Amino acid sequence: MNPLLNYSQSDNTQGADFVEHEIEQIIVTFAVIGIVAVALMGTLCAYLGNYQLVFFDLIAGTIFLLVLKFRSNYRLASTILLFNLYGLLITLIYSGGFGGTGPIWMLIAPPVTFFLSGLTLGVVNISLFLVGAIVAYFFGYVGQANQILSPELALRVLLCFILVTLLSATYEYFKHKYSSRLSQLVKYNEALANLDPLTNLSNRRFTLKRLEELFQQEKDSTASFALLLIDVDNFKSINDRFGHDVGDQVLIQLSSIFQKAVRKSDIVCRWGGEEFLIVLTDASKYSAVQLTERLHHAVNSHNFINEQQLAVTVSVGVQLVEEADASITESIKQADLHLYKAKAMGKNTSKYNFENA
Ligand SMILES: Nc1nc2c(ncn2[C@@H]2O[C@H](COP(=O)(O)OP(=O)(O)OP(=O)(O)O)[C@@H](O)[C@H]2O)c(=O)[nH]1
């Protein structure tokens, strides 16, 4: 199975942030359009002396302004926005609107509804609106002196409304389908950019990003962490003796050993080639030593390739990062230095920065 299919969706929240930002922008745009529309309509109604409609336009305009205030709570803001529009449209139907043309404005409702509510909630909301519109039509508009829509024309407005609703719902359905596919592809590509394809571990790029966050947190707290730079001993000779494919299998099995040895909060990364980096969060001297000993024991006792006698060992350089002003580059350089010392000491061992402290 392609390991990239296992990517964690929760690790990548950038997509969600982006969508929320976009929704906020849409809400602001809709609210501003609403404010401009009611301002124009209100001015026209005032000019023509229809003060009842001026009053309703003022209320709707105030609520649109309120939407701008709550725009960051996009669920609340889009609900207020939509039901404010419904209120305005139903008022137009009930009162007959300007020159008895009020009911025509109901055609605005379907596209705005599906745009703001999505398909399922949109169906519920537009049904509620339709019930409200029909009630307003019979209890208000039909009795108005200035009504100009004949029952036949009103029926056509209703049919047109149903058609626009169906078209808007179909558009919303396909928009949702394509955007879901697109966001899956974005997540897949983010996973591609963050994972090592052979071992399915985090790659150096992703780990460096996480390290930047950890080093920042380190500056703000007293928590310390450890970097364990691990190198497979004599890996070239494993490749030479058993072949590159077996070498790859060894790297995959080592990855799984390392992942089983750490906690969820720790990071196991393929640093490059036959090198791995483990970031042990909330670490102490004791926990760093415990983990490296556990790793050596797990690697040494693992039966790598069933039929062949293949002894695999690793050397580890450990850097416990406690100082607030430590830099990533310097800490990794120190871990590398200790790894070099572990190799020089005969391999299959670990060297720590705090050993002689
Ligand atoms: N199979 C396989 N081999 C790799 C991969 N990446 C790097 N290598 C090999 O890893 C080997 C590393 O060799 P060296 O740097 O000489 O290190 P070593 O043999 O482990 O020796 P020491 O580090 O001193 O113990 C090279 O032969 C690389 O070709 C990989 O993804 N798969």
From TrEMBL:
InterPro entries: Diguanylate_Cyclase, GGDEF_dom, MASE11, MFS_trans_sf, Nucleotide_cyclase, Rev_trsase/Diguanyl_cyclase. Its EC number is 2.7.7.65. SUPFAM superfamilies: MFS general substrate transporter (SSF103473), Nucleotide cyclase (SSF55073). Gene3D superfamilies: 3.30.70.270. The keyword Membrane applies. It catalyses: 2 GTP = 3',3'-c-di-GMP + 2 diphosphate. Keywords: Membrane, Transmembrane, Transmembrane helix. Pfam families: GGDEF, MASE11. The keyword Transmembrane helix applies. Residues 223-355 form the GGDEF domain. It comes from the Bacteria. PANTHER family: DIGUANYLATE CYCLASE DGCM-RELATED, REGULATORY COMPONENTS OF SENSORY TRANSDUCTION SYSTEM. This is diguanylate cyclase. It comes from Ferrimonas lipolytica.
